[in-house]
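Anyone? Bumping this.
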Amino acid sequence: MIVTKPRSLERILEDLQSVGARRVFVVGCGECATAARTGGEEEVAAFSRWLAEHGFEPTGGVVPEVTCHRPGAASALRKHREALDDSDAVVVLACGAGTQAVADAAGLPVFPGLESSFLGMAVRNGEFEERCQMCGECVLDATAGICPVTACPKGLLNGPCGAMWEGVCEALGDQECVHVRIRERLAAQGRGAAGVLPPKDWSKKRKPDAVSVRERVRRGQEGSR
Amino acid sequence: MSRLRDALERGEFVVTGEIAPPRGSDLAAMRETMRIVGPRCHALNVTDNQGASLHMSSFAACLVAKELGYEPIFQQTCRDRNRLALQSDLMAAWAFGIENVLVVTGDDPRSGDHPQARGVFDLDSTQLLQVAAGMNEGHDMQGRPLSGGPTGFYLGAAVFPEAEPWGAQLARAVGKIEAGARFFQTQAVFDLDKLVRAVDALHQHGAKVVAGVLVLRSPRVIDFVNKHLAGLAVPDDVAKRIREAPDPAEAAIDLAVEQVAAIRDIADGVHVMPLGLDARVPEILARAGVAAGA
């Protein structure tokens, strides 16, 4: 899931003041931001109270099922058309994709209420760790299912580097060197190290990227991949 | 031909020194250091934004060393440049007669003086060695021929003899040799048994080892090393000896003399990092019984 963190309230205040907004509508997200406790029903209500305490007038709020689904976000907003027509601006408690879906659909100045941090794994309820860079060319086959592109602060494919000391990464200070961890897990599984991994092909990560499932399905029906 | 390569391959005990380019454009102090240290060394490492802190480019400072008649070891870190920039600097180095290259990963930017900087690490040091070895075969990273034909770089890498687990460290070092490294320069070594372990292992793979010695001139320097230098910790007994000495600088010189003398019997050379006591390097080498370089 996409892990979000609260954005500086001073910054949100400045954003709203920059357009002279007084009446503000709030949008959350029923998916990742709800799980991260940054943009669910509770947080939307709490943020609306904060707005009221700081001289704004909250005009309403909504938590679409999945805010980064633009047609879904637009349909959720349509149900609040009156409140939106009565608003000067919208604050979105969702990731950057969710905020842009709302910005496309709202017809008003839209501001981010969160910072989008990383693609995370819930290591237990309420605790998330960054585990994937979405680099476009997975190396987990060679690295025992542990991603060095993410877990090594330098993103090295071949390690350990000189910052490894007693198996600990000095750049991170308190965590095991991921290259040592990879080697240990490979050995425990009776697998040899993969040898020197070649430089990454970053053309696989060119942005902006786009995927059309419709197109792929159509081609699949034509019998090609 | 590289004097460093020649001496190492002949089995002569080599001495390398370390030069940090200035943070700014005044070359006077660096030239002065080169004149003091250079005559005692087979080659001078010229660092590349060492400690992830801003300095003049290593390439430019290597040219200054050559101008003064000293042989540079061009250091390249993977932290500040992508594969295009790294290759273009290697081409420049060869065109201007720089033969020795030490390829290192580079400290993480958050340990340096520009902690906001983005670390590049497009290649890691093993991969960059492969690229430089490819240039020695006459082609760039895409396999396209280089005008002027193959380069003839003498390629070096870093190894950390005291790092544990040693298995992971050794596997990485062997990967560097397979990638093209012919010599290693080490982080400062205090535990000589571990140096023996590293030298024996790397000799089996045909690589030479130049062992590092730090001159720990004051308690403040010891604290700095422990806090800021990656892959290094000053052992308590060593720290105590210098901290409690009436004259810490003299105690540090004595210690360095002992270390250089011991390394003579173990490794293929010594790399002296004087941390400010550059003027004392000739004395350290002389007292340890190491002849003037070349």
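Late reply, but here is one note on the structure posted above: The domain at 2-117 of chain A is CATH 3.40.50.2300 (Rossmann fold).
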